[in-house]
Amino acid sequence: MPRQRRPGTGIDPAQKLDFQFDGLPLQGVAGDTLAAALLANGVRVVGRSFKYHRARGIVTAGPEEPNALVELREGARLEPNTKATTVELFDGLSARSQNRWPSLGLDLMAVNQLASPLLAAGFYYKTFMWPRHFWEKLYEPAIRRAAGLGRASGLPDPDSYEKCYAHADLLVVGAGPAGLIAALLAARSGARVILAEEDFLLGGRLLAEAFLIDDAPAHLWARRVEAELETLPNVRILKRTAVFGAYDDGTFGAIEKVADHLPEPEPGQVRQRYWQIVAARAVLATGGIERGIAFGGNDRPGVMLASAVRTYLHRFGVAAASRIAVFTSSDDGWKTAFDLAAAGIEVPFLADARADVAADLVERGRRLGLRVELGARVEDATGATGLNGAYLRSARGTTWLPIEALAVSGGWNSNLGLSTHLGGKPEWSETAAAFLPGKTPSWMRVAGAAAGAFGLGEAFRGGVEAALAVLGELERRVPAFDMPIASDDPARTTPLWRVEGASGKAFVDLQHDVTVKDVELAHREGFKAVEHLKRYTTLGMATDQGKSMAILGQAIMADLEKVGPAGLGTTRARPPQVPVAIGALAGRHRGRQFRPTRLTASHDWAAAAAAPFMDAGLWKRAQYFARPGETNWRQAVDREVLTVRAHVGVADVSTLGKIAVLGPDAGIFLDKVYVNGFSGLAVGKVRYGLMLREDGFVMDDGTAARLGDTDYLVSTTTANAANVMMHLEYCHQVLWPQLDVRMASVTEQWAQFAVAGPKARALLSGILPSTPLENGDLPHMGCRPIEIGGVRGRLFRLSFSGELAFELAVPARFGAALWRSLVHAAETLGGSAYGSEALGVMRIEKGHVGGAELNGRTTAFDLGLGRLLSRKKDFIGRVMAARPALNDLHRMRLVGLVPLDGRAKLPVGAHLVPEGERPAASVDQGYVTSAAYSPTLGHPIALALLSGGPERLGQTIRVVDPLRDGDALARIVAPVFVDPEGSRVLA
Amino acid sequence: MRLTCPFCGPRDLREFTYRGDATLRRPDPDAANAASAFADYVYLRANPRGPHREHWYHAAGCRAWLVVERDTATHAIGRVALARNDQP
Ligand SMILES: [Zn+2]
């Protein structure tokens, strides 16, 4: 039944909002969170717990909520594990409880409680170790069903996200009293201020307490400050924005929930925005988080934090129940009792575990007619599906008293997560009875409750102090301001972590169902260090990160160890401080925008020809160009290969890396980075070159052309272009800066096309009628400048296919036009375009090494290229390449393979084992690196790395591919399958 | 983290590529002990906590190789110089 709504500092009771919970139609008001609206409707049980399936209710009023996790929305927007305490109510909202089966009221899984010895800490390690297959078939599915949280939708996220960057003189995190006053001072000084607040309202506890500031309700002060900040152009207020990480040099990550409070984003609106904020200074005013006390049944629906009870009362105008008792070990509980009494809500008792309480509190309690019990404890709370009473133990004995809710305060924690991201180590403060932020970077300050200033007056003073220090460092004038006149509420705490004598389960982590007993077990079994305790019991590892309660488990362990909280310490947090959607981090970088795409000059033509494309780095390369009637990719590829070998083909090879190396010392420089010599290369000549890493393994291969005396053009493999560039710059700038040489990547500046096949010369003579192309004019491995239609280009006589071949390069903007005329010319000669697949097949037919062989683990010796290594000069990798182990004949070295039966596929990745041996890692002798069907030869071929391979030509080896059921015998052959004499390139 | 490139000014970490220890010198390949000297040069690295001189490449900027003084414990950045001016 909806209770009569009281006025609240953050709601508009006139504006009604309809929503559903587990299909039940309910009504809330504007300004509600889902949790506030549920409480206002008398909904007490909102979910079932993770391990024991105990009924759970709402515990807190903020992002530290461990229990009230719900599934929000439907369909693709379904969002599991959403905290009801932070969800802004909207009209039409639909939420469901989680982890209940078959229904929230009747939960069959609650039988887990009876089996709870099985589910104690460490149970995964002990119970389910053996036998192994039981785990997969039996235990895991059962546990997942029983102990699951929410479900994901399994559908693509329909919303969009974006990234934003911002810079500021001061970032203030948190807009409670300390944050607001710090932001106000800095803003009035003219500094660029960003104020980030996770909540949808500014004010923090000022909205949630009966505070007076300057003799007026505190939330009015917050509203006034907000109004002033909004008028200032140097201030950016980010509401609904959680700062989740602090990084070096004043960098912060934050998530702004732009549209989560709407039924769905408006057209064109992003759902969330990922901010990267760089600030010269930061003030963390992240506030405090109240903690509970471990007594029996402290998880019953109706057991709430005392401060949350006040938040619901003052901000949302909701009484959490009609009879609310208080159990406290801090002055905070008294505040709750007074506020409830003042609002006319029955307070059956106020039990303070402390015998020594400030006299004025006791006096005020008595005046209000409260039943005050000092030195008393709640041992157990009762009521499985909703609190119905509590066993109260006092000097007079134990009595059971009927209550509907219990407001609990065990004191306050600093919300210090962000202060630890850069290594700050929290320190225990006896005065504050809390861990407080340790050393922070010089640009980061902590103020207010986050710094242990739990009273209102001291929070203001802390905020002012932090702002003045920042303004001093930034050399800004201090503006005029009036210190708000506010009381210093008493905020003393004597920690009480657990109640001895509790008979029911006493929880220290509500979301992961970790109990005091689990902590004791961890202690007995030696998992005593705070990080071991965490991992053994999963204490604090749930989505709430134990922000409210994990301290209880740590302190109980500290007591068992007799060291106190200071001695045991606490865990340090890492980003993210709040859960962050992967979609928000990805922003616009999804689908086609996942990364940039590089397109070749022939791309549009290839796309029009319906070519499929493969990714080569960021490039899209056309794989083949199928013709009508070709139903299978192999038909197209085989045709393209045979066309090149019989007639002529043209291919776009622009994706190969191209680096211009210029300067008087360019040749000497290349001598140092290639294993072979380049300073002696004649102008107008091209040479194949191999680069090693300094450890002696192959880095990359390609060609270098000498275009002029001081002008070389280096080509690299497509994949390695950027790495080779970086390597060359390193060699020059770090190793040999005295060399007069400069380099520039020109990959994108040139479009380059291969023209290959017996009719290549005939084709080119039509395109370049005035350029002499005969062997005498342009021999194999020659190059020369050309002019084509008034455009200056370059012509290389290079062959990758093993046929008579040329490569023609023009500035990229003329590439598309040249490509079209080359394709047309080829077709008139019976030729065609060919794609990367045919290119790859011809490479394998010729035994040229490619990416699969240049895998970072092969040497020049392995690849049969050892003869290239110059003995006359030093080069990168020379000394290390000479190591005996890198020249051992038994190394896996390059060979060719052909199937004995002429038909069997030799799949890439298949392992090579001796004939007659049972395939096993112990007899593994190598593996297939590249494989293709050779249309030229009419059977499959492969390149492989085989132990002692070149010494074993003619022998038989077994090619085993257990993953794809491949098993064949192959003959070991030299790795050149077509035209081994190499006569065709000289045609 | 930010590095102040001598050419480009203060720039975000993501523009740079890390390489490692900048105090290493490529050994003389013709020395008698070249094999062991190169093995140390290629494979041996100290892992200091505290100040470290290291090579960074301004890949998304001016393409300069830089010698950066960085505290490995705090990421505090000291002097940043062009590697080409940092010869022994
Ligand atoms: Zn730069």
Q: How would you sum up this structure, described in words?
A:
The complex is a heterodimer of chains A (987) and B (88). Chain A is of the alpha+beta class and 987 residues long. Chain A folds into six domains: 12-113, Ubiquitin-like (UB roll); 161-288 and 414-473, FAD/NAD(P)-binding domain (3-Layer(bba) Sandwich), CATH 3.50.50.60; 496-562; 603-655 and 749-843, Probable tRNA modification gtpase trme, domain 1 (Gyrase A, domain 2, 2-Layer Sandwich), CATH 3.30.1360; 659-745, Alpha-Beta Plaits (2-Layer Sandwich); 889-987, Beta Barrel (Elongation Factor Tu (Ef-tu), domain 3), CATH 2.40.30.110. In chain A, the strands form 13 sheets. In chain A, strands 8, 9, 12, 13, 14, 15 and 28 form a seven-stranded mixed sheet that branches. A six-stranded mixed sheet of chain A has the order 41-42-43-40-34-44, with helices on both faces. In chain A, strands 45-48-47-46-49-50 form a six-stranded antiparallel beta barrel. In chain A, helix 6 (306-314) packs parallel to helix 7, helix 11 (516-524) crosses helix 13 (550-560) and helix 20 (760-767) packs across helix 21 (815-828). Chain A is elongated. Chain A starts with 11 loop residues before the first strand and ends in a 14-residue tail after the last strand. The mean pLDDT of chain A is 93. Chain B is mostly beta strands. Chain B has one domain: Folate-binding superfamily (Folate-binding fold, 2-Layer Sandwich). Chain B is 11% helix and 38% strand. Chain B contains one helix and six strands. Chain B has one helix at residues 34-43, and strands at residues 2-5, 9-12, 17-21, 51-57, 65-71, 77-82. In chain B, the strands form two sheets. Chain B has a four-stranded antiparallel sheet, with no helix packed on it. A two-stranded antiparallel sheet of chain B has the order 1-2. The two termini of chain B are 28 Å apart. At the A-B interface, helix 19 and helix 23 of A face helix 1 of B. The structure holds zinc ion. Chain B: Pfam families: SoxD. Chain B: One of its GO terms (molecular function) is sarcosine oxidase activity.
